[in-house]
Design goal:
By secondary structure, the protein is mainly alpha-helical. 41% of the residues lie in helices and 5% in strands. It has 3 domains: 35-295 and 529-543, Serine Threonine Protein Phosphatase 5, Tetratricopeptide repeat; 315-395, no CATH class; 409-489, no CATH class.
């Protein structure tokens, strides 16, 4: 947890009026404030870039919209949870493919990303116009770094949008006039082009992780930009492949940026010896962390105030068990499924570091603590103490959690690089990086053998165990299996299923083996519709946007 980088930055920048009557009024009013008047030195420039990080933290305005409600809950990894099916109705609709364009969770998520884009655009525009030497700190190198951070953030926000909604309005400059408010949707290809162009610029000028002082921990790094290029090109390639286009150039770029990361960042990152260390307060910004959203403990109250009123995360209290047996309890959202539990191989220690199984004695109110018959609880980001089986630190409504959100970590990068390498005809490299991840999970125990000497559930065969063979097809299955168990409950699963083009098949197979109680709430996945979410109807009306198919 870093106490400096994501502090709230407030700057009131007034937009000037353009006045021209008959030419007799030639000078600005002495009381007029111009945007550029604020950018007088290094401190102002740095503060505006810092402000562009802040929407990354946002999870609540008129409803909660933590990314796990999409990445985990919509997938086969998790059920919504909460007190009952009515608790967080917007998330219930998303989980069960019943969402329509007035879904409040989607609206808040969509708008938060554009708030971040607007702040990044302002920083890029104004800092670009500042001359090095305006003060002692504002050197050419400092200017380049700030612009690179802003470009990284703009790319990151657009990436969040494009993988959920497809093409969205492409805004690259601040909007100062209502005449410029209405912008058409760009294509997904145009958004990915913007993302990758920004990330390449960022990668060239950002320092490595070790190049920052401790007080700046959490800022974008060259490693984060390279990892995001690997990720963005993989997603772009999958998008092209799913629509019948040639995806080879995207996969080649993904492999290239993955190789660049491995070569240039080798001394910057390493896998934690203990997998569970990635999800503890003590392990924040650790050796495996490539990019994480910073939160901090703060005593001031903001409950019910909405975006920007606090610097802690709601995710911890949202995901903690409702059972008083675990002491400092939560609200019971994001409940791991039996399907996810069964995906783990025998003895895999990652399962118990991810999923808590309450005993009968630890369930005091089954009606509220078991969600549709599911008793499993997510552990990650909840500060659960395995030795005492409690949440030792209290998190109440007025003091959100200091637990960071690790968005990219090294194991994720290894598996993406394995995937890109396989797509580019390098199965040997793919096996090497797959094995790095399995070896860390294995530790010194006689478990989790190297590929292909193990079996995994095959969703195409009703989750029957499939003995892997040394083929590219089975290596792809193994990498996908590893992503599921390694990154479980970290908001990756739904996006992985969609980009691989298998969401419909997986969700149908998952639904078929779920309990009658869960299945009764689920609508069928519709291929060609549910891979994307509806553009929020308020945004459709405001901007005259074309809605996604089927909504």
């Amino acid at each position: 947890m870093n106490r400096n980088i994501f502090g709230t930055v407030l700057a009131l920048l007034c937009v000037p009026f353009a006045v021209s009557c008959s030419g007799w009024l030639g000078e600005d009013s002495p009381m007029l404030n111009k945007v550029e008047d604020y950018f007088t030195g290094a401190d102002a420039a740095e503060q505006v870039v810092t402000a562009a990080y802040v929407p990354l933290m946002w999870e609540y305005s008129n409803t909660y919209y933590s990314e796990f409600f999409i990445g985990d809950v919509v997938s086969d990894d998790a059920l919504k949870g909460g007190q009952n099916i009515s608790d967080m109705a917007d998330a219930y609709d998303l989980e069960n493919f019943k969402a329509i364009a007035n879904n409040g969770l989607l609206l808040e998520y969509y708008r938060a990303q554009y708030q971040g884009i607007a702040r990044a655009n302002l920083a890029i525009e104004q800092i670009s116009a500042m001359e090095p030497g305006i003060d002692e700190r504002f050197t050419g190198e400092f200017k380049a770094r700030l612009l690179a951070e802003a470009r990284f953030l703009r790319a990151f926000y657009y990436f969040r949008l494009v993988r959920m909604f497809g093409g969205v309005p492409k805004i690259e400059t601040p909007i100062y006039s209502s005449e410029d408010w209405i912008q058409p949707r760009a294509t997904a290809d145009e958004i990915y082009t913007l993302i990758t162009d920004d990330l390449k610029e960022a990668a060239a000028y950002l320092p490595a992780k070790s190049g920052y002082d401790a007080s700046d921990m959490g800022r974008a790094t060259s490693g984060a930009a390279q990892a995001m290029l690997l990720k963005a090109y993989l997603y772009w390639g999958n998008s092209k492949e799913n629509s019948g286009q040639d995806a080879s150039s995207c996969y080649t770029e993904a492999q290239t940026w993955g190789r660049t990361f491995m070569q240039e960042q080798a001394s910057e990152y390493s896998l934690c010896t203990d997998y569970a260390d990635n999800f503890t307060l003590a392990g924040e910004n650790g050796p495996e962390s490539v990019f994480e959203i910073q939160y901090m403990k703060e005593e001031t109250t903001d409950y019910g105030e909405g975006n920007g009123f606090q610097r802690g995360t709601f995710a911890t209290i949202l995901m903690r068990s409702r059972s008083s047996a675990f002491v400092n309890v939560g609200w019971g959202f994001n409940r791991p499924t039996q399907n996810l539990y069964d995906e783990y191989e025998d003895g895999d220690p990652r399962r118990d570091a991810t999923i808590l199984t309450p005993t009968d004695d630890e369930i005091g109110n089954a009606e509220q603590e078991n969600y549709l018959g599911c008793r499993y609880v997510s552990i990650k980001r909840t500060m659960f103490d395995q030795s005492t089986r409690t949440y030792p630190e209290a998190i109440d409504n007025d003091m959100r959690s200091p637990m960071n959100n690790v968005v990219i970590r090294l194991a994720d990068v290894y598996l993406m690089y394995a995937e890109a390498s396989l797509e580019c005809g390098a199965p040997g490299t793919a096996k090497t990086y797959l094995e790095y991840v399995r070896a860390r999970a294995r530790g010194t125990e006689d478990i989790l053998p190297a590929f292909p000497d193990y079996s995994i559930p095959d969703y195409t065969a009703g989750y029957a165990e499939h003995q892997l063979q040394d083929t590219d097809t089975d290596l792809e299955m193994a990498i996908r299996h590893e992503r599921r168990v390694e990154l479980a409950m970290e908001s990756h699963r739904w996006f992985d299923l969609c980009r691989w083009g298998i969401a419909g098949d997986v969700m149908a197979a998952y639904k078929a083996q779920e309990s009658d109680e869960v299945r009764a709430h689920m609508s069928d996945f519709r291929t060609g519709k549910h891979e994307l979410f509806p553009i929020p109807d308020e945004e459709v009306r405001l901007g005259g946007l074309e809605q996604n198919p089927g909504y």
